Task: structure prediction
Amino acid sequence: MSIKIPIGPQHPALKEPENFTFTLDGEYVVKVEARIGYMHKGIEKLMESKNYIQNIPLVERICGICNVAHTICYTQNVEYLYEKPIPRRAEFIRVIIEELNRIHSHLLWIGIAAHLVGFDSFFMYTWRDREVVMDLVELLTGNRVSTALMTIGGVRRDIDDDKAYKLRKGLDILEERTKYYKKIAEDEKSLLVRLRDIGRLTPAEAIKHSAVGPTIRASKIKVDVRADDPYAAHDEVPFNVITYDTCDVFGRLMVRIDETLESINMVRYCLDHMPSGPIRIRLPNAPPPGESVSRVEAPRGEDIHYVKSNGTDKPYRYKVRAPTLGNLSALIEMLTSKGDYLVHVADIPVVLGGIDPCMCCMDRSAKFIDPIKGKEWSLTWEQLKLYAKRKWEKEGIKAKCR
Amino acid sequence: MGLINWARRQSPWLLHFNTGGCNACDIEVVAALTPRFDVERFGALLKGSPRHADIMVVTGAITGQVKNRLKRVYEQMPEPKFVVAVGTCCISGGVYRGAYNVEHGLDTVIPVDAYVYGCPPKPEAIVKAIEALQNKLKALEAT
Result:
């Protein structure tokens, strides 16, 4: 006999309103259905009604945690349209802020993962030390979370010697603490029992479901946009792509701890090798017509933005593809028992948390729902074209659909 | 009644509900619970179920999908209940105002007792809102 358990939209295991339906056979999960769309706000449509500068704060609020990745992706996407390089110093500052953002995001996740397995003292320790990096971000940008540093053509604030000195001191503390966390994660038996062989994702499955970020890197596949398609100053800043072959939540934890250490070294390298010069160039308000795609390695994985410009000061179409959408189908694979791999109900929160889900990034799609008839449906591209054609014909306008 | 109100004031239990925000306010709410800011020194504790909670901390813009669920969660809370709206999007729609799936403020859906401004607000501001609610209870007790 199988039982269905709905989880969400409001549930202590989920930090964001999403709905999952688990079908259980005794103690094991046999089927998972995700119902997304609770966070859909209509940002892409709203962006079409604002100009490129007004869109920067909006893009920043696609996701509050990885806001730097989204703003870098947006600004460099628009800069590609102008086809003008931005100052080298601005690119270095972008990398510094991006890596600080990654440190904060990973430390946050380490704490949440510890909380999900019931290791609350570890959660409190990481969040206490995370305040160090929050203070550094506040020192450099003036804000704790939403940095508001990027602008089209460069960055808005410079890093002087005094700030660089304070930044180095903070990084020393962070490095020491992160090494301590690595020791805990490797040695602490109660943590290992809860994380080892939980949420299995084999390399073949990871590729099949197009997982991204630390999730795929924990399955021993080297995928990192910073190395594969360098942007900003990443072509110069050296770093190692961290992979683990454990294919479980423990591997994802270790990938994130090691990436935090890598990011600390990257920030130090940037501070040492930062060229002098301007931090911003002025660009005209309206970019030339064209299309462009930009990719950025957000803390959760590959973030893709697409823009289409028609020569006015507002984007004609903007599309965001956030990393969690790629990880979601891999997540469903991880949560389904098959063969000798069994998923217990008690492991659901930690597997769910293992991909570091950021639902607000990902909810860009919409589904048609008729609440009176209780009907749900979605349209294919062909159906949508037909729908548009009929609608315009009803109003007496002959539509031409390509 | 004096004893009950005193107990209520000293241990307000929080329910955190994200209604479709960008997570920035959420991490600041969680940061308010952790050692640097430590809202627990005012007796506040994060709870999972609306039936155990006294204060609902709402973060994020209210999307069309979440609106009815939010009302239901609010109705499940026992009296007396309080609502704290955290962040500009929750108060007025903020940066998403004008988007087709966003309500213009939490107070158009359920009554609100305290507003915390900022995008995202600092954890200190959230702690202050909890303290303000405690003072409100104190005033109720006096009358």
